[in-house]
Design a protein that fits this description.
By secondary structure, this protein is α+β, with helices and mostly antiparallel strands. It has 3 helices and 14 strands. About 15% of the residues lie in helices and about 25% in strands. Strands 4-14-2-3-12-9-10-6-5-13 form a 10-stranded antiparallel beta sheet.
Length: about 240
């Protein structure tokens, strides 16, 4: 990411296959990934298996696109209540609630904090804690079209993701999975990240405390502007109120 990428790569379990594999086994191994039949088309990623077991989300013909869903992220640093907005990104909200209800986010760390002048976010959603894990499926972008231009970018390509935004991290077009980011100060990004909710006031106070702790310097980033939060942040439990 300078760009909020989520590689979606997890450890792949090896499979021992005898040299005399049957044609039926070979055909099964070559089977295409499963895709849900509804408009969201959640698609299995066999080469990027789930960091924590979870089924594909439901995908009804009429994906809920009205109203909001409240989600409480209980963290060791304080509460982070979220309001998810179905009209902005119905497939994204549906997937996020599905992962919450399957306890995918429980007992996971927020693995990345950025403190660049124009990018200030906390990134979470990977049970492996590496920034490479996902749910074993991907789904399409639902990109914003109403963001204001970033005054720091004279080309107009970057837009303002305002403080309090909840958006999906990704590894390129239509590669959304489980990783998401919370914007604690206005940030300038290309509008390539699906926005699906907002952080409530209590959550912003928690984010401010985490951000004030700074970034833990690492060999990859000795400057301390992009890396794990110095105040280790763990989602203890996520709960949706549908």
């Amino acid at each position: 990411m300078s760009n909020l990428r989520a590689t979606g790569v997890a450890l792949i379990a090896g499979v021992l296959v005898t040299t005399g594999a049957t044609p039926a086994f070979a055909a099964a191994a070559a089977a295409p990934p499963r895709v849900t039949p509804g408009p969201c088309q959640y698609t299995e990623t066999p080469d990027e298996p789930a960091a924590r077991p979870v089924p594909l989300p439901p995908d009804p013909r009429h994906t809920p696109s009205r109203g909001t869903v409240d989600v409480d992220l209980k963290t060791n640093r304080g509460p982070i209540p979220l309001t998810l907005i179905r009209s902005k990104a119905p497939c994204t909200v549906q997937s996020f609630v599905h992962l919450v209800e399957h306890r995918f986010y429980d007992k996971t760390i927020c693995h990345r904090l950025t403190a660049y002048p124009t990018l200030k976010v906390l990134q979470c959603g990977d049970p492996s804690g590496t920034g490479e894990g996902g749910p074993g499926y991907r789904f399409k972008d639902e990109l914003p079209t109403d963001l204001k231009p970033a005054p720091t970018d004279p080309t107009g390509a970057r837009k303002i993701y305002p403080r309090g935004t909840v958006a999906m991290a990704n590894a390129g077009p239509d590669t959304n999975g489980s990783q998401f980011f919370l914007v604690y100060a206005d940030s300038a990004l290309r509008p390539n990240y699906s926005i699906f909710g907002a952080v409530d006031r209590a959550g912003l106070a928690t984010l401010d405390r985490i951000a004030a702790g700074g970034v833990a310097p690492s060999p990859d980033d000795p400057t301390g502007v992009d890396g794990p939060p110095a105040l280790t942040t763990k989602i203890l439990k996520a709960k949706a109120h549908c």
